Amino acid sequence: MLYRVIYAAEALGATGTSVLSLAQILGVSERNNARDEITSRMLIHAGQVLQAAEGQRGDLDRLQKRLMADPRLGDLRILSDRPIISRSFTETMGLRRLSRGVADAVLAGRPLWELSPSQAEALLDDSSQPLSAVA
Ligand SMILES: Cc1cc2nc3c(=O)[nH]c(=O)nc-3n(C[C@H](O)[C@H](O)[C@H](O)COP(=O)(O)O)c2cc1C
Known about the structure:
By secondary structure, this protein is of the alpha+beta class.
């Protein structure tokens, strides 16, 4: 049985802003997620992280433990954790950003962890843009 877990957290220190720090996170995540057959998408916005991970229960639980213990993340909150019929993501670690318009419309100044489960799902689906779209 496959599950999708979505969590939000604070990106502490240089986590959300430094290219080197992001590259390190992506490198480790891609290696581990490929090993664990986890597909994932992550959004970094205004010092916060929103990540969805899809995979088998045990692999997701082990990932969650590692994330909870990671000093680069603060105040991690699970927004949604549910069984799914099939994966939505193909990437092991897809990095996305929010367009200004979507951030303003959906978040309206609220932090990412106040999103409802369906809003979090929607943000990670189509309304986010690949990070390479950053001007
Ligand atoms: C924002 C953020 C997202 C992360 N996402 C993942 C992930 O999807 N998969 C993963 O294995 N580690 C992820 N990590 C790293 C873990 O917290 C942890 O450092 C790592 O899994 C340890 O792997 P190792 O035991 O192979 O060194 C993430 C870290 C941060 C800060």
